[in-house]
Amino acid sequence: MEEKLKQLKARLREVDNLQSAVAVLNWDQSTYMPPGGAPARGRQMATLSRLAQEKFTDPAIGQLLDELEPYAQELPYDSDQASLIRVTRRDYELALKVPPTFTAEFHEHTALSYNVWAEARPADDFARVQPYLQKNLDLSRQLADFYPGYEHIADPLINYSDYGMKVATIRPLFGELRDRLVPLVEAITAQQETDDGILHRAYPEDKQLEFGRRVIKRYGYDFERGRQDKTHHPFMTKFALDDVRITTRVQKNNLNEALFSTLHEAGHALYELGIDPALEATPLATGTSAGVHESQSRLWENQVGRSMPFWRHFYPQLQDMFPDQLHSVDLDDFYAAINKVQRSLIRTDADEVTYNLHVMLRFELELQLLEGELAVADLPEAWHERYQMDLGVRSHDDRNGVLQDVHWFAGSVGGAFQGYTLGNILAALFFAKALEAHPQIVDEMVNGNFDTLHRWLRQNIYCHGSKFTTSELVQRVTGGSLTIDPYLDYLRTKFGELYEL
Amino acid sequence: MEEKLKQLKARLREVDNLQSAVAVLNWDQSTYMPPGGAPARGRQMATLSRLAQEKFTDPAIGQLLDELEPYAQELPYDSDQASLIRVTRRDYELALKVPPTFTAEFHEHTALSYNVWAEARPADDFARVQPYLQKNLDLSRQLADFYPGYEHIADPLINYSDYGMKVATIRPLFGELRDRLVPLVEAITAQQETDDGILHRAYPEDKQLEFGRRVIKRYGYDFERGRQDKTHHPFMTKFALDDVRITTRVQKNNLNEALFSTLHEAGHALYELGIDPALEATPLATGTSAGVHESQSRLWENQVGRSMPFWRHFYPQLQDMFPDQLHSVDLDDFYAAINKVQRSLIRTDADEVTYNLHVMLRFELELQLLEGELAVADLPEAWHERYQMDLGVRSHDDRNGVLQDVHWFAGSVGGAFQGYTLGNILAALFFAKALEAHPQIVDEMVNGNFDTLHRWLRQNIYCHGSKFTTSELVQRVTGGSLTIDPYLDYLRTKFGELYEL
User: Fold this and answer.
1) Between A and B, how many residue pairs show a Cβ–Cβ distance under 8 A?
2) Using 50, 70 and 90 to split pLDDT, how confident is the model at B362?
3) Catalytic annotation on A301?
4) Which of A250, A249, A300 is nearest to A272 (CA)?
5) Does residue A352 lie within any of the structural domains?
6) Residue A449 contacts by C-beta under 8 Å, 6 or more apart in sequence?
7) A43 neighbourhood in chain B, CB within 8 Å
8) What is the largest CA-CA distance in chain A?
9) What domain range includes position B15?
10) One domain for residues A130 and A212
């Protein structure tokens, strides 16, 4: 059996090598590639992705998994070996169901669709991209249909990013969250609007980046095992457990942009960097799900990086770095500015309180599209109506309406948005649990020390990689199931104090 | 036949996609990769290289080549199609002769050997790396033996980089060159030594890089189709015909370093960027040989970048950029400094006149090793003796002796050095031909204009990619065969004037 396991790992390592190479090519494309490189880069990534898929769905892997099954049954569920065999089988069977020709067609179409969207968005031209979105939707339905027996047509698509989550469980959760968030937003926006003008003074870009790097080093991000580069749309990417990189963007007149995107991507990176090295180059060497991954980016960005204890330590340093801009601004005003709540049109600029309203309406709309309850042609207007209803604002164009997010245009319609809100819910759940176990975390933050928090997250979440599903992990960490209460407690406490509710 | 050709090209494109991905991974490793990324990067590149090799030696490619042979016979020799079929067959048959297990063993050993060398060199510890070099030599002999029927055991190794060249033709050529260079070096070094202290003043690094970029833009290097990054050992790399990148290194107290390495690598890049786009993603989309490639880097570095007409244009700009360092230095003194001839120990720092003496003694030594005339244990002393004999200098250590170049430790012993001197010979040959066709090239250089020269090189050399062998190309361009006369004329004229011989 040792020999079979060795063979399986060798095959999985080959797949990992190909996938990691795709990640390097993608990182280069997003950071340094000159414009001329684009056409060839598309075909290079397509070839490598296809080979990775071919190698992963090789019947020899199925054969090895079958042979290893009895061995896995005798081992503890959470052992490296049993987990490897279990999770690999799950991913293998998911991958096998989709014919390679469909995968190729889908990738080819979404690449095209992405390019059309990238031109249609600045031109505010939904009509131009509409037929591509229609085809994306048709293909997304076909993709779901390769997994017959689903409860809801979105379930197989959700499975790709948040394995085991279902519309039947997410919808009521989101419904309850929405019902409880809307009054909070109303109460806050009834107050006087916060002035955040101080964040939009002129902040030299290199200093902004230097400050962000200083913070994430304190978080425990190790520049010997990663690096930060500039890009248009920040992301985290992993080439190996010891090479996990982040990207950011920086705007001279927006102190939020580089700083919080840096903390956010560093959170994703800390997760990957904390995976047990024994899991390297296997399907276990990644985060559990989109939701759990997002919980870590949001935790380090918000629960830590937008908290008062954090800024008690770092605000004097920020003032030292930008004396002209901040010396006369006191901590409370700065803290209020970075936590300003407002009804707005753009998801990525949204504050912690309204953010989920942006996400959940997208989730609802994509379900309606998949269900056939909403036609693509009617989507722009449906978007405006939902924004009016949930956020009380309405865009005058589609550029800041339905065209603002890339997701539906560059991938499947369905499965992309729920992770953002699940992440927020999980961030609060995990953070509350960490504080319960180690109340000194708050005092440590005031001293710029994140060791206890980081260690707790590594031991309870990061080290496991993707051994467990989201629900299993929540069960292990909290002893219960997914609940929105800690998240609402967190928001009510923090913003209740800020807005004196 | 159109269909067969299409199938062949599709297979070759897949190989190219894999090879280009390896190039991206290698570029990243040499420029931006954090230290932690190294172990995984090794296995990623190994997997991709192996897959490229497997795909290229797929019997289906042999089958297609067989079927296309009659078609190729009816087409002009220099047509894209006939050239593609001919050159692919040549490379295919070369690749087929070596068992994949050997290739894997060889790569594994050289990767190990490289690491040992990288530690042994600064420690000046030849004994440490000696067994690895011995194995490199043994494997190089085995590699050659996969091509039975050679005249000299080095010929198959030379074929990899300079196809069609043989020891029987190179040795007499180099012998003659050496006989004619040695008196020139003696005559020059009998003169008073040039003072090049001005090149070692403090030159801010970013300004040095800016100046180099300015020059290569005038050469025609297009930053929309490439970029320049910093590295330890400068190189040029190609990911596609529209993404050809260069790297450089910069030293504050050495004006030569960044500038001439930039011009050198830009020369390599102009070659690749000038290949006919119709040849993209096939074995024709690369330079003809190591020698012809080096001819272009050396031509743009030396015949152009170390010439008086070039500096008549650029020196005032350099003075403007570095007024404190250069305002009181006149053009003649600057020109003398960048062309200073001296007997030295290090090949990469050598001037145009002595450079080939460094190269040719390495070529001789590797032939003796392969022939069994020289034992690895005796190599360090043989090195010192040859330096004493050819250059009149002797290193007190092996660090600046046999350990100075990576080639024998990171690849085959044999085949790596001849290209440098062939490149110098060819640079002079091609440059003389270009001047003969367009004497105005010199006047254009004085005006900072390189259009006629660049166009002539594109039309006569670059556009063809690797359609022709070195000899075929020389025949087409010059109407004759390879000769050292233009090179010696060039050196004698330039350095005769400089040193008033």
Assistant:
1) 126
2) very high
3) no
4) A300
5) no
6) A218
7) 13, 17, 281
8) 69
9) 2-96
10) no
